[in-house]
Design goal:
About 55% of the residues lie in helices and about 0% in strands. By secondary structure, the chain is mainly alpha-helical. It has two domains: about 35 residues; about 90 residues, Orthogonal Bundle (Cytochrome Bc1 Complex, Chain D, domain 2). The longest helix is centred in the first third of the chain and has 34 residues. The radius of gyration is 22 Å and the shape is elongated. Bound molecules: heme C (HEC). The site of heme C has 23 residues, from helix 3 and helix 4.
Length: about 150
């Protein structure tokens, strides 16, 4: 009789341990979601803490974008892309990705920004956006630019 009770008790404990592990997993998950750098629930995820992706993006940016957007994306002929402000793409990763892929053909909106969707792979464009966001985060942390998520 006692044996049966302790058997049930250990099963209950096993289930509790399993539930605790699951809850812990849920607690850890939001932290990694944050590392994906999304601007809102439906925004495209970016692996902002993946050094290899950021490095690839940095390389591609230097090859294809610095000419107009300046070294480190600080701006030149084209606007700053690491200042936390994206008037053309609404400051979402999806919007920025889209502008890079299809360009800005509307002359009343500028029309100088070309389309890179045919000469860069999706992986490369994602890496470039990830690099821009990583650089933006670094600049906010260094106090070089104001944090756009905090009203001044
Ligand atoms: C020939 C110059 C030129 C090159 C090269 C260029 N851009 Fe641009 N880009 C511009 C200009 C100028 C604008 C402002 C809008 C316009 O005039 O079309 C712009 C706008 C943008 C925007 C919109 C910013 C916002 O406010 O949302 C993004 C994003 C962008 N460029 C990313 C890139 C990336 C990434 C690359 C490299 C893959 C790149 N551009 C290469 C000139 C360039």
């Amino acid at each position: 009789m006692l044996h049966a009770v302790s058997g049930r008790l250990s099963r209950v404990l096993a289930v509790l341990a399993l539930a605790a592990t699951f809850a812990l997993g849920l607690m850890v998950f939001p932290a990694s979601a944050q590392a994906q750098h999304k601007m809102n629930e439906t925004d495209m995820e970016l692996p902002i803490d993946d050094a290899a992706v950021v490095e690839l993006g940095k390389e591609k940016f230097a090859q294809r974008c610095s000419f107009c957007h300046g070294g480190g994306g600080k701006g030149g002929k084209g606007p700053c892309l690491t200042c936390g402000r994206f008037p053309y793409s609404g400051n979402t990763n999806t919007g920025i990705y889209t502008v890079i892929a299809v360009g800005i053909s509307n002359r009343s909106m500028g029309g100088t920004m070309g389309a890179f969707g045919t000469t860069m792979s999706a992986e490369e464009i994602t890496a470039v956006v990830t690099y821009m966001r990583a650089e933006e985060r670094r600049r906010i942390a260094a106090g070089e630019i104001p944090d756009p998520s905090r009203p001044q």
